[in-house]
Amino acid sequence: METILMAQVMGALYGLLAVIFGAFGAHALKKKFTPELLRSFETGVKYQMYHSILLIVLSFNLGFGSNLDTYIVYCFVIGILLFSFSIYGLCLTTANGKKLRFLGPVTPLGGLLLVIGWALLLYSFIAPIL
Q: Could you give phi then psi for residue 120, rounded to 5 degrees?
């Protein structure tokens, strides 16, 4: 899939899912989750939405003439998946008493990819003036 189209489709899909998960968390999970689990779940939703919007903005603003632009998009697409969805999995399985511990290390890996995506984006802005 062309990188621009992937950024648009994934940004829209992740945005759609963030709204659905946010509503699900606020209504259906409110009674099942402890306040701490609810805050964690909401963190996943917020980060997912922020980065979904960013993907859509990038798809209309990056030139996609270099590999750097593609790496930026991939960092955000994979970072959202690993970061937010591992938080959802941890919260849901913890609330059901069967915490999937293997998801614990996945969250920081996703966060690292988000950080790398932001760092690459910053580099793409300052590289032409260096």
A: -65, -35
Total of domains in the chain: 1
Residue 103's H or E segment, with its range, is none
CA atoms within 13 A on the CB side of 32: 14
- Predicted confidence at residue 3, as pLDDT, reads 86
pLDDT (mean) for 11-25: 96
User: DSSP string spanning 96-118?
Assistant: TT---GGGTTHHHHHHHHHHHHH
Q: What's the first-to-final CA gap in the chain, in angstroms?
A: 32
Q: Is 12 exposed, middle or buried (0-12, 13-18, 19+ CB in 10 A)?
A: middle
Q: Average per-residue pLDDT in the chain? A: 94
Structure tokens at 109: 């890996």
Domain of residue 117, residue span:
3-129
Quick one: 126 exposed, middle or buried, by C-beta within 10 A (0-12, 13-18, 19+)?
exposed
Residue with tokens 């003036």: 129
The whole-model pTM stands at 0.93
